[in-house]
Amino acid sequence: MTDFSHPTQVSWGWMEAAAQDDGWVFEQKVDGKRAFMEVFGDRSVLLGRNGPLTVVDGPWCALGRGGNLNNTLDGELLGAVYWVFDVVSPLSWKLRHSLLVSLLRDSDSHNVRILPTYRGTEQKRHLLELVRRDGLEGVVAKRYEGGYPKGRTLSWRKAKLYGTGSAVVMVVGVDGKENVLLGAVTGDPIKIVPVCHAATRGQTYRVGDVVQVRYLYMSNGNRLVQPVLLGVSDVSWEDCGLDQFRRVNKDVNDD
What we know:
Elements: E1 5-9, H1 12-18, E2 24-28, E3 33-40, E4 43-48, E5 51-56, E6 73-78, E7 81-87, H2 93-104, E8 112-114, E9 117-118, H3 120-134, E10 138-143, E11 151-160, E12 163-172, E13 179-186, E14 191-199, E15 210-215, E16 217-218, E17 224-225, E18 228-232
Parallel strand pairs: 1-11, 7-8
Antiparallel strand pairs: 2-9, 2-10, 3-4, 3-6, 4-5, 6-7, 10-11, 12-13, 12-15, 13-14, 15-18, 16-17
């Protein structure tokens, strides 16, 4: 199986600058299960990082019957929808995208859909604003020229919209490791509930310290994703509310 292409992480400022560069095309970063779609016999199969995710039957299967799909598709399985965003091919992005549209033109499946793309400064700035406004995870930028890259690449870049917040140190040295358990304030009567473990990175913290933490988003289970300690804060523990943390919207914007 072909290696997935892995975008290089960049800053939000880099992405804002790339919005003005016609050499880059933007897509929404989708937080699902990465998978190739390939054809085996009369069935289309979604292959994830660790093997098959599902056999594509019903309306999806029509893509594979009769050899209609001779190219490997790349996308994310989000719920019941497979959002396709590329074709594994040495062609340029422009030609790959045209090929993708032609491959799926005759499909009436609502479960296989093409991820919207944003070209031109106005469209790309619009996507950046949508990510901020609607709480989406981030943006992927791809070089307009050049084929589908394998492995880690500078031809694809990604930027995630991180947040910062305040939390209380509940426990120091969890399981004997150099980390802390952080909590947030919620409820009536007030209580502090755990939200994440975070590495101390050689810094000293005490139980009861209020700290600043950078994070990607808060999950539905009230856990901070990708937390990084930024140091002790001078705010009160009463300002460490659970509702301060940003929750990600995993829906795909396809207006």
